[in-house]
Specification:
Helices cover 50% and strands 13% of the residues. With 340 residues, the chain is α/β, with parallel strands linked by helices.
Length: 340
């Protein structure tokens, strides 16, 4: 089986010849080639080359094409900083009050430079690998996360408690349209799978009840848009998601990229028959800063649980830091390849 076939089998709950491996590694992959984030984000050909190098170096089954976590925010007018040595970032929202929702302009995200660069890098990778390696085109922020950047994190949290329900809904519907635009465009690149991150929607930021009311329904709309385009879908939420895993399943996502803080045994029991688990080794404490022996130990602990289901893709729990050692990643992949 090739990489595309292994990951596709995992998404369908079918057996494969080896445990499939995909890395959330755009920063580490760029560092591997001594490419700065400033160079990386500006050149789709270079982005493609960085991921090709990673596939060949570590023997990966899939590529998670990620660039930063603020591209959709930038497309709607949020001020973005572009450091040369780290991913792009935002600091403040653009909407002082939900009373000013009419100030938000309807946008076409394809008109934003960095959306185009992201899409072109995915197209180049699909053109190169065809159906040999699975290409997952990440589509940046899910609606709740994008809303938090438009308003700013603290004001958005206050809005959930104090603003008019109709205004909160209106902003989330605006953000859902923006996210779905990116999903639709990513589908045109030939990507096999799409995904979004919705990290502020996790229990470390809001209650499970708020997740169910303000995040899950809009995640479901995005998942439905992906499926309508014929694409598999992965949802990522940072932090410990123990309290919302059963609700996350109701979005209809095919897979969940789960943070290392989530209990692996609970995740196994909830997901094993209904969706694919992607993760969830600690990217910092284990893969970036741990010894090869610790990487092997933690990987075997995870495999001992998830080898009992076909619905599993080995990955880190979140994006790998740029300082992640080559030796640790090789041990990570080799442990999966040799696991019995």
């Amino acid at each position: 089986m090739n990489g595309y076939e292994r990951i596709t089998a995992a998404l369908k709950g079918e057996p494969s010849d080896k445990i499939p491996v995909m890395l959330h590694n755009f920063m580490a992959a760029a560092e591997d080639m001594k490419v700065t984030m400033g160079q990386f984000r500006e050149n789709p050909g270079l982005i493609a080359d960085v991921f090709k190098n990673s596939v060949e170096k570590y023997g990966l089954d899939g590529i998670l094409v990620d660039i930063d976590t603020v591209t959709l925010a930038g497309s709607v007018g949020v001020k973005i900083d572009f450091p040369n040595d780290s991913p792009a970032r935002s600091h403040n929202g653009i909407l002082d009050s939900l009373d000013k929702l009419n100030d938000l302009k309807r946008v076409k995200v394809e008109e934003y430079k960095y959306v185009q660069i992201w899409l072109e890098s995915v197209r180049l990778l699909k053109e190169y690998y065809g159906d040999q390696i699975l290409i997952r085109g990440n589509c940046d922020q899910a609606p709740f996360s994008l809303a938090s950047m438009i308003r700013g994190t603290e004001p958005w949290m206050m809005d959930l408690y104090m603003a008019k329900q109709s205004q909160v809904t209106e902003l989330l519907e605006y953000c859902t349209d923006v996210t779905c635009q990116f999903i639709h465009l990513m589908g045109q690149t030939g990507a096999h799978m799409v995904s979004n991150g919705d990290s502020p929607a996790g229990p470390e930021m809001i209650s499970p009840g708020m997740y169910e009311q303000f995040a899950m329904p809009y995640e479901k709309i995005v998942v439905d848009a992906a499926h309508k385009a014929g694409l598999s879908y992965t949802l990522h939420i940072c932090g410990n998601t123990d309290l919302i895993l059963e609700m996350m399943v109701k979005t209809g996502a095919d897979a969940f990229e789960i943070d290392y803080k989530t209990d692996m045994h609970k995740a196994f029991n909830i997901l094993k028959d209904v969706a694919t688990f992607t993760g969830n080794i600690d990217p910092s404490g284990v893969l970036a800063c741990g010894t090869p022996e610790l990487v092997r130990k933690k990987t075997i602990e995870l495999l001992d649980v998830f080898s009992k289901t076909n619905r599993f893709i080995l990955n880190s729990g979140c994006a790998l830091p740029s300082i992640t050692p080559e030796e640790n990643l090789k041990v990570f992949v080799e442990t999966a390849r040799n696991y019995r």
